[in-house]
Amino acid sequence: MLDLKFIRENGALIQENCTKRGYPVDVAALIKLDSECRRISQEAETLRAERNSLSKQCGTDPAARERVKAIKQEIGALENNVGKLQQKINSIISFMPNLLSPDVPNGDNDTDNLEIRKVGEIRKFDFNIRDHQELGELLDILDIARGAKVAQTGFYYWKGKGAILAQSLFFWVQRFLVERGFTPFMTPCVAKERTLFGTGYLPFFEDQTYNLRGEDLALIGTSEQTLVGYHADDVLEGEKLPLCYTAFTPCFRTESGSYGRASRGIFRVHQFHKVEQIVFCRPEDSVKYHEMCLRNEEDILQQLGLAYHVVNVCVGDLGAPGYKKYDIEAWFPCFNGYREVTSNTNLLDFQARRLNIKFKEGARRELVHTISATAATDRMLIAIMENYQQQDGSIVVPEVLRPLTGFDVIEAPKA
């Protein structure tokens, strides 16, 4: 959420930003509402001063008593108008996107993202390769059909050595982040509407949310929601910043409108698993920690031996709460291209303003900045499956995961 005072003083800039990001907000109308709200509030404040002055005379002056009664009614009517205006103002602001970093590239969708660098050697195969779904069925480590039978399409089972590989990857990534100073969490898998609003998932991604009927709760789409919400209304100690948190959770998204876009297998699903990086920091440090989270993501992929490229996400592919976003896309042989495996967003104080998260340091008292970055999801697992496959359909386990899996290769079960 943007600061109303900043909007008031930079109306043309905010209007340009909203238009560029595709949000039809009438900033001039908002500023007019704000002006009217402040005028009425000042009128009410003047009446309060008059009431306070007259209250000293009420004991001896009947006219003063009558005037105080009238003032009370007038103030009530004005406060009611102020409340309605503030509700309209807040509703408009809640749909306003964050500002954009000057170096965010123009573009309409992910095909317009700007490549920053390529890393790693793309493996060449001298045999007919299988995609992760075919490999999973051959090796009996991934069951999509029974996921659909038990739940619906978009849900799946990791099983046997596939489940061990998945658990090993997610544990290894968490341990990697802990060694880099992150505090590990196990969080709730549901969150209140205020938490979803505060992190920017409402109203911008409402159609992606699984709500629980009859409850002020929804299944989380990412532990970003519960980790950032953890500090709602808190005043953090400046000398303890940055606070770096990580959590592994299942994540639930409806993926409304996403199917039909190269979604064979489990690349685009309703439930997946993710290790997240969250950073709370001083405003002047958010660019630095945005880059730090990107280094973590790259180091993870490099240690897993996966080829990838980093892209600066364009305007049309950048969610409304984001100021700047990097995606890392790993090479998927069966897609014959790069596909997203991590995303990393600097949100400035957008979430902190909505959730009232501040820090204090001496006389300084300000909103924190937040960084939200993926560390690993199931997509890394399927990248491993496709890139490490052998001619017979077996999968070699990346060396860094072998101490956790207890095996070097996943082979087809014997008949």
Give the rounded overall mean pLDDT.
95
- Report Rg: 26 Å
Provide the CATH top-level class of the largest domain.
Alpha Beta
Beta strand %: 15-25%
- The percent range for helix content is 25-40%
Q: Sketch the major β-sheet.
A: 8 strands, mixed
* Beta strands, count: 17
Number of structurally distinct domains? 2
Strand order of the largest sheet: 1-10-11-12-15-9-8-4
Query: How many helices does DSSP assign?
Result: 13
Task: Characterize the quaternary organization of these chains.
Answer: single chain
Quickly give the structural class: alpha+beta
Describe, in plain words, how this protein is organized in 3D.
- The termini are far apart.
- The longest helix is centred in the N-terminal third of the chain and has 33 residues, at 62-94.
- The chain contains 13 helices and 17 strands.
- Helix 3 runs antiparallel to helix 4 (62-94).
- The mean pLDDT is 95.
- It has two domains: 4-94, Serine-tRNA synthetase, tRNA binding domain (Helix Hairpins, Orthogonal Bundle), CATH 1.10.287.40; 110-410, Bira Bifunctional Protein, Domain 2 (BirA Bifunctional Protein, domain 2), CATH 3.30.930.10.
- The strands form five sheets. An eight-stranded mixed beta sheet has the order 1-10-11-12-15-9-8-4. A three-stranded mixed beta sheet has the order 7-13-14, with no helix packed on it. The protein has a two-stranded antiparallel ribbon with strand order 2-3.
- It is elongated and about 100 Å long.
- It has helices at residues 4-9, 11-20, 27-55, 62-94, 132-139, 144-150, 161-179, 193-198, 223-229, 286-304, 350-355, 378-387, 402-405, and strands at 114-119, 142-143, 157-158, 183-185, 190-191, 218-219, 235-237, 243-252, 271-281, 308-312, 324-332, 337-346, 358-361, 364-367, 369-377, 395-396, 409-410.
- It has 415 residues and is of the alpha+beta class.
- Helices cover 40% and strands 21% of the residues.
